[in-house]
Amino acid sequence: MLELTRRRIPNRGKHTILTLIMTAAVVLALTGIGGATPIPGAFPTWNGGNLSVAVTTACINFYNASIDACPPGVAANFNLNNPSDAIFGTVPTTVGTTKDYLSANQASFAPGVQAYSGGVAFMVLNGFTFDVTSINVPNIVACPPVGAPASCSVEDLVFTQENLTGIPGACPGGVGPCGSVSVSFSANGIGYVSGSNPVTTGSTPFTFNYSSQFNNETIAHLLFVGNTGQITDSVSITANGANVTVPEPMALSLVGLGLLGIGGFSRLRRRRAPRARA
């Protein structure tokens, strides 16, 4: 605890000493015990898999044994995969759940971070809940790209033709060249202990990255399938968190007291300032 004592010192030294004391109070407040962290670890990470996805213009539909309605009556299951922090369970036996993404819930498909509504309790894993709050819409790059590796984008999705080394006889329609194609998209949100209120207990910012891999494919063919029906494949989820330390209420109070003290000292100096002679 900081304590001011009365000492007879030259007036010109009072400002320096009090400034140092108030500065120390503010520094102690800001470097004090941080706020509650709902999900432990500096950068908590988990990976999910053993999940399928069907993509249409209206929905990104996650499912298990067979394609269901979008959104379904129940969430789809996924298994915890490596690499994942131990707090999220045991690989590969821990099971999480996820909802579907609906195009109607997205504020816009313009490039940038677009708000997503209806994302509360979007995923649940081992006692933790994850809300989705926004979608990262990529910059517009015309599809299909030329050559490989090369990427393009359609609304939320990024298509990458990784190579053109596929087997010609296995290419769509039997016509090459084709190869490996990855499809990905990214969302943002928060994670917190299930059953708690993130507004009062705090939360951990998260980015959710989804990726599907296709073999003996071309981006042009995938877009044709997506426009006429749906793209289906397995999908993996990577969730990366970044904890933000927030000062405790006591620390914020110390900051306030420090600022009040500085303000009070300034008023004291003004009251004691000598009047100008006529």
Multimeric organization: single chain
Give the rounded overall mean pLDDT. 81
Q: How many DSSP E strands? A: 13
Overall geometry comes to globular
**Number of discrete helical segments:** 4
Structural class: alpha+beta
Radius of gyration: 28 Å
Percentage beta strand? 25-35%
Distance between the termini: 46 Å
Give the % helix: 10-25%
Biggest beta sheet summary:
8 strands, antiparallel, barrel
The helix/strand series, from N terminus to C terminus, equals HEEEEEEEEEEEHEHEH
- Domain count: the total is 2
pLDDT below 50 for ≥5 consecutive residues: which ranges? 1-10, 14-36, 246-271
Going across the major beta sheet, what is the strand order? 1-3-4-7-8-11-12-13
List keywords for this structure.
278 residues; 21% helix; alpha+beta; disordered N terminus; eight-stranded antiparallel β-barrel
Describe the structure.
The chain is α+β, with helices and mostly antiparallel strands and about 280 residues long. The chain folds into two domains: about 10-35 and about 245-270; about 45-240, no CATH class. The protein is built from four helices and 13 strands. The chain has an eight-stranded antiparallel beta barrel. Helix 1 packs antiparallel against helix 4. The longest helix has 24 residues, at about 250-270. The two termini are about 45 Å apart.
